[in-house]
Amino acid sequence: VFSGFSLGEADLLRRAIGKKIASELEAQKEKFIDGAVKNGFKRDLAVMIFEKVVEPFAGYGFNKSHAACYAMIAYETAYLKAHYPTEFMTALLSADYGNTDRIVIEIGESGQMGINVLPPDVNESLSKFTYVEDGKIRFGLSAIKGLGDESVRVIIEAREKEGKFKSIEDFARRVPAKVLNKKSIEALAYCGAMDSLGERKRIGLNYDLVAEFGKKSESSHIEGQAGLFDHIADTTPIEHLKLPEVEPATPSERLKWEKDYLGLYVSAHPLAGLKKYFHKKLIPLDQLPSKTVGRPIKVGGLITAFRKITTKKGDAMAMLSIEDAFGKAEAVMFPKTFAECGGTLAEDQIIFVEGILEKRGSDLQIIINKATPVALEKLQEVAKREGLWTEGETIDRVSRHEAEDLEIEKAEEVMNVDEKKVKPIAKNAKETGDLHTILVNREVGKAFFVELKKLLEQHPGKQKIQLQIGEKLVPVPMTVELTSELLEEVENMMR
Q1: 50 phi and psi, to 5 degrees?
Q2: How far from the centroid of its chain's Cα atoms is residue 61's Cα?
Q3: Predicted TM-score (pTM) of this structure
């Protein structure tokens, strides 16, 4: 109405705004201003409305009803997080159920709030993340790999019917025999869900005795319903479940099983307590950028990823990701070294590494010359003996803010951004329409920025670009042509 647009012309402007198509928006600008002038409005007013209202709205905007809904939800969730933090984090974890990356971040956030997220428990857990009491959340039984939905349902049903399970014998009597198979019992025992009923290893190794006892109990119960021998029931000896004693699980075994069956370490981190040791005896991985490339180094940590590769000549080598109590690093083991010490290495092992620091593009990489596996218990023993052990220490998981910092760091590396140019959003409030913002609204890694850079390079032009990551704006040192095709591809990458 202001510029005399027809409904069709107005819809073209709406499309340019809604799809954030800068070239189309620019094409509509003069038409909008000229139309307003023809309608008797001053040119300065028309320019001001377009530049101060239309263009900023195309950057990121809502109509009032939508904005009001967002504001209300933001207020309500902030209130709940402040006044009911355990319930709030339980709901948040449940909402991201199945997304391990998000779960790790949110467990870290919970820890910083003084909330413990514990392994599942047959006596406390529901299907999803479960509020137990203030400061205490349990993993849900459905998180356990190898335990089906039907098994989860009948376990919870049995508990709700007659109360908590008092022992492994009580569990085997009350839970249907179809659930008591090798896969289910091992999964429940080794992830920690049966810790309230007995020692993990003892139950897990004796799954056959538990299953057999459950079958006999169920069979006896069914036969007893006929009533034929009811009169002698009181004189029949009661059979009990007795499991042979075994050596209790070591801390490293418990943590490895949690990782295997839950996808992450829950009750603790393997390197907890060892920060002092790693800081004194080795180079902390977060200090690698300050070390001289080409010089020998000695580092150590947990193998979080291990990928064996066969070269064109048929020789074996490996790519590793290593994590200590301070940071992470990538490493490579070439065939000669792999032949000497790579055959015994695997994910979740702790290793000490001697090698050379090398720079590949913008990344630092460790070329491994020697790798020595170390048992967690032995390492803990040495640290205690040398006074380098801290009882009760925790390894902080990455919070959302730290995740954003890591994303910015990766963006700087891949896009060749000067870190001094990264600014808070508030300081860039007056950006004009010639600068297009790409909102990075999910957790991403280095591969994302590599892919994004390749995509942007395929569309050279004059439009400036910046990335919005959390509360920061990261300028991209290249210009592009903002076609609808490019915007659609970028949008697909964000999904």
Answers
A1: -65, -45
A2: 29
A3: 0.62
